[in-house]
Amino acid sequence: MAKPLMPKATAVWLIENTALNFDQIAEFCALHVLEVQSIADDEVAVGMAGYDPIANAQLTQEEIDRCVADPDAQLSMAESNMPPPTTRTKGPRYTPVARRQDKPDAIAWLARTYPDLKDAQISRLVGTTKPTITAVRERTHWNMANIKAQDPVRLDLCTRAELDVALKKAGYATTMEQLHQAQEEAEAEAKAEAAAKAEAADTGGFDLTEKPSRPPELPENPFDF
User: Fold this and answer.
1) DSSP codes of every residue in 8-27
2) How many Å separate Cα 87 from the centre of its chain?
3) What pLDDT digit, counting tens, does each position of 120-154 carry?
4) Cα distance between residue 48 and residue 83, in whole Å
5) pTM: predicted TM-score of the whole model, two decimal places
6) For a FRET experiment, which of 27, 63, 203, 205 has its CA 20 to 30 Å from that of 88?
């Protein structure tokens, strides 16, 4: 069953204006029965104004009277002539105005760090258009002089998980795999450096593999200059 608009406010109104039991109100408002009881006891939604479901065409008085007469009955949402809201499934994601100037920076970072990422993948990650991506790639963007490549995750334009999914599809290692690889390489380098220092300490700090240099040749008569 569809959930009513403003469920808690609707529950407040039903508690204050009807004789419906907590189970009926909880079922209709998609709330837990204990939450409805807490609203009735002024422990939750204190001071919240009730939302009249009759005035807003979500319930009828006849439906409320039917359920009051039968405590086991469940409220049914009133049929509405309004068309159902449509869900947006395509197009770039919404980005807050304060973050929109960061998009070219994120595009530059993705194009430089992962050149095999497709424009469609960058568009989904950053929420931008293909002409903008092309302009940044070809360095013809109108604000190119001020663009500084930055990680879109740090700019809060996408999540780390979303970036990893795109990288996997493009044949790259995920960011976590790259981090582990970098850590392993750093540890191997540190171990090699420590081993070299230990070997140098064992030989008194001299490199025994180095060939001694020949002394300069002296003339037959050392006093003949």
Assistant:
1) HHHHHHHHHH----HHHHHH
2) 21
3) 999 999 988 899 999 999 999 999 999 999 999 88
4) 29
5) 0.45
6) 27
